[in-house]
Specification:
The chain has 467 residues and is an alpha/beta fold. The chain has eleven helices and 22 strands. It has one domain. The N terminus is likely disordered.
Length: 467
């Protein structure tokens, strides 16, 4: 029977789509991302000064590591450091050098410290000039970090990144998946208020008083959030974890340590050897492990570190699909309400005060950046010790979206409390820890809203999860 013209067109169309389907089945679809993971040992030698005490022995190695992520049009670096801080112009210098090694702009380098206290304060600018003496003629000791150590560390970090990029060590990443788990026994609010609403004591990272431990947990963000880079075979190449609590349990021991996060990452890497895990501390300025840490010894690191490590592994078992999309960055510049009256001889150590006063105007501006890739969002603060209420505020603005948070950017800024904390008193707003005015709250919240503006205007997922 002779086919009519419409039938011939239909047959040709069916043949075309059959052939197209056959060809497509024989070709591997190009992955939307590619990534490189890196990890560099930056453990200081015995004899070097840590942030608060000498390094008499090595309890646990410390690292700087992370991922380089590229979508063909944009490239970013997520870098986490086992330091208490990276401060001042050194922070900006490290961003530039890492960016040069990775092949991206400096503003695309998200550089964050984990904030362990038995570690290095990377701030050579805090050191006095060579030969400086005090009013009594005594030599002023180092107050920042050893310059040779800083130079070697960033040299090793950038050399490793540059080597991997030069060797084209990119791994195709098929998708970014996420997980959120409610964590127990690792966070409690540090600020304890009396009936008059005054902060009369602080629940630090080590609490030996049972009555203090028995007090309510207080305001925290209990969620551990994970972003996993998943390869085409379904395995997890790297996992970025975000959680808000002060990351130390045993400190001032005269030994360098990765503390609870360091132990947790080691635990997770042993349990999932094909995956590299990287830990970022969220807005934990007023949150500690104190309620759950009755010991000042190393056993606390093992107990709490194993607990956190189990949660890291658990998140890999409950990853959720997210729609892929191009890398986009939403960067907001904020005017930081610094108070120069707080940087005086009664409040800051010599080197910190001298450096802060000399460079005061430079630090009046900082940034908040939202990283976005499809349905994955990460909020990155250039500021350092931000109190947890700001993280909860961001979460409340976009409750239908996945949003992780990384704080502890430039350590020059110290604490960022709520405005009411200045009346409530307490450590976070005292002159020994805080360089801003109460105006910090409206400024920070406005910056957060601006960084999240697109998600606020268009809530929910941008695409349906894969079946």
């Amino acid at each position: 029977m002779t086919k009519t013209k419409p039938q011939r067109y239909l047959a040709a169309a069916l043949l075309f789509w059959a052939l197209a389907g056959f060809c497509a089945a024989g070709l591997r679809a190009e992955a939307p991302y590619k990534a490189i993971r890196f990890k560099v040992d930056v453990t200081p030698p015995v004899g070097l000064d840590l942030a608060y005490c000498p390094n008499n022995q090595i309890d646990m190695p410390i690292y700087v590591g992370g991922i380089i992520l590229d979508d063909g049009a944009a490239r970013v670096v997520w870098c986490t450091c086992d330091y208490i801080y990276v401060c001042g112009e050194t922070y900006e210098d490290w961003q530039k050098k890492i960016a040069e090694a990775a092949g991206c702009p400096p503003e695309n380098v998200f550089l964050h410290s984990v904030h362990q206290h038995d570690s290095m304060r990377v701030a050579p600018e805090y050191n006095p000039p060579a030969g400086a003496v005090d009013d009594d003629g005594n030599r002023i000791p180092l107050e920042g970090s050893d310059p040779d150590y800083v130079a070697k560390s960033i040299g090793d970090i950038t050399a490793e990144i540059a080597r991997l990029v030069a060797e084209n060590a990119w791994v195709p990443i098929a998708e970014l998946k996420t997980a959120e788990t409610r964590v127990g026994g690792l966070a409690s609010n540090r600020r304890i208020l009396n009936d008059e609403g005054v902060c009369y004591t602080s629940r630090s990272s080590m609490v030996l008083d049972p009555a203090m431990q028995a007090l309510p947990t207080g305001v925290i963000d209990p969620m551990l959030r994970t972003v996993a880079l998943v390869k085409e075979d379904g395995s997890v190449y790297a996992a970025l974890h975000f959680y808000a609590t002060h990351p130390q349990s045993a400190y001032l021991r005269g030994m360098v340590s990765g503390d609870v996060p360091g132990w947790a990452v080691r635990y997770a890497c042993q349990k999932t050897p094909d995956t590299l895990h990287f830990y970022f501390t969220g807005c934990a300025g007023n949150v500690t492990v104190g309620k759950y840490n009755p010991s000042a010894g190393a056993a606390a690191i093992v107990t709490l570190g194993t607990r956190l490590g189990e949660y890291l592994v658990r998140n890999l078992d409950r990853l959720e699909d997210r729609a892929v999309g191009p890398i986009r960055l939403f960067r907001v510049e904020i005017n930081v309400p610094l108070d120069p009256a707080r940087a005086n001889p009664e409040h800051l150590a010599w080197g910190m005060r001298a450096y802060f006063e000399k460079t005061f105007d430079h630090w009046k501006r900082s940034s908040i950046t939202r990283f976005n890739a499809g349905e994955v969002n990460i909020l990155s603060f250039g500021l350092s010790e931000i109190c947890v209420e700001y993280q909860l505020y961001a979460q409340a603005l976009v409750p239908e979206n996945f949003l992780a948070t990384a704080a502890y950017g430039n350590g020059i800024y110290w604490y960022m409390p709520l405005a009411k904390a200045f009346d409530e008193k307490g450590y976070e707003s005292c002159v020994a820890a805080c360089l801003v005015t109460p105006e910090i709250e409206p400024v920070l919240k406005a910056g957060i809203r601006e960084a999240l503006a697109e998600l606020i205007a268009h809530p929910g997922w941008t695409g349906a999860p894969k079946k």
